[in-house]
Write a structure and sequence with these properties.
Blueprint lengths: L1 E7 L6 H12 L5 E6 L14 H11 L6 E4 L11 H11 L4 E7 H4 L8 H7 L1 E5 L6 H7 L4 E2 L9 H10 L9 H9 L5
Helix pairs in contact: 2-8, 3-5
Length: 191
Amino acid sequence: MKIALYPGSFNPIHTGHVQLARSVVNQQLADEVWMVVSPCNPLKDSGMLQDEQHRETMTRLALRDESRLVVSTIEFSMPRPSYTIDTIQRLQHEHPADQFVLMIGSDNALIYNQWKDYQQLLSLVEIYVYPRRGYPVEEAIALYPEMKALETPYYDISSTQLREWIRQGRETDEWLHPDVLQYIRSHELYR
């Protein structure tokens, strides 16, 4: 089976994440997309990061009806901070019959040289790059020709923006699964 790994904080997961993952399986670029909930991204500020259990639960709620989108918590049992190369090597060891590819945003692709063992990672898996506002995919591909641009719609939303809207009491229904929104409200997250 071909599995696309989509690592993220999912803080919170939103419809842009889900639609992007759905697009990858619909284009037959992968049989499944595994949403890898990252407990600690070494390149991000963890100040507004909700507890990993909350983020896992929200991700499961958002993917409840998505048979080919899977929640992975593999990094919860790994040393922190989480490094993508370590995760991929462990998954390749645990699932030797499967082929893994990696999905990253163009923002991360442009700082890819800051990733642990980034050259080795390029030799382990194909890397698909999806667009993020202000970070041209073409620039990332020019830096790393081994990477492939994903032909996906652009989703003009970010978890950072949604957290701010929730804090302000603004409407977020368009971007959050109803069960995720209810979970956020009932646990008073991002207030």
